[in-house]
Amino acid sequence: MQGLANALVVLRREVEAGLAAGNGRAPGRVTVTVGLQPLAGGQWGVATGPTPHVLTFEFEPAPAPDPVLEPSGWSAADQEAVACRLDGVFGPPGFDSAARATVFRETVSALDPDQLPVLWDGLEGVVTVSDTGLARAVHSVQRLLERGGIEVGTGARMLRGIFLRHPAEAVLELVDRRWRFGTGHDLGA
């Protein structure tokens, strides 16, 4: 059931990211029907074609964050909500996710704020990035998203939604604080 559980988590994240990237209005409940197929060892996974086995998944999407908030205006609840969304991108705090978060923070910190929309568009394949530095940033973030277990386009939409609603400096500071464990930062390095 692990394959199905992971697929449902990814599906929920994609729906929430799509809602966050849209008009900010979330429906009361979302219902999704997923086709299933048996896998080896008695497990079930998401079907790639027609199947008589279906599962209906119903949930309430996470509320869309408020419009842009100043760093000093972030409540603990606001920060935790953003941190939970970022957990979906990097993984929960730990050694591997700290490495991904550090690469992300350093890559995004090196960009101008007006380059961030181009970064997200490049990750989603909407534009071809010709600027060498920006192309390198797209490649770095793409690789860390792939290694984080999230589909690149989904991760890009989630990140775009977060950075549209919150100042980049505040988000990067949150990334630095939350994913310090396991990188040597916690040892005074």
List keywords for this structure.
189 residues; 3-stranded antiparallel sheet; 3 strands; mainly alpha; 2 domains
How would you describe the overall organization of this protein?
It is a single chain. This protein is mainly α. A three-stranded antiparallel β-sheet has the order 2-1-3, covered by helices on one side. The protein has seven helices and three strands. It has two domains: 2-59, no CATH class; 71-187, no CATH class. The protein has helices spanning 2-21, 76-90, 95-109, 116-124, 132-147, 152-165, 168-178, and strands spanning 30-38, 44-46, 53-59. Helix 4 packs antiparallel against helix 6.
Write the layout of secondary structure elements.
Blueprint: H1 2-21, E1 30-38, E2 44-46, E3 53-59, H2 76-90, H3 95-109, H4 116-124, H5 132-147, H6 152-165, H7 168-178
Structurally, how many domains make up the residues? 2
Low-confidence stretches: 65-70, 183-189
Based on DSSP secondary structure assignment, what is the total number of beta strands?
A: 3
Strand content: 5-15%
Radius of gyration: 18 Å
Write the element-wise H/E pattern from the N-terminal end onward.
HEEEHHHHHH
> What sort of overall outline do the alpha carbons produce when their principal axes are compared?
globular
Mean pLDDT: 78
Distance between the termini: 41 Å
Helix content: 40-55%
Tally the helices. 7
Structural class: mainly alpha
Q: Which strands sit side by side, in order, in the main sheet? A: 2-1-3
Largest sheet: 3 strands, antiparallel
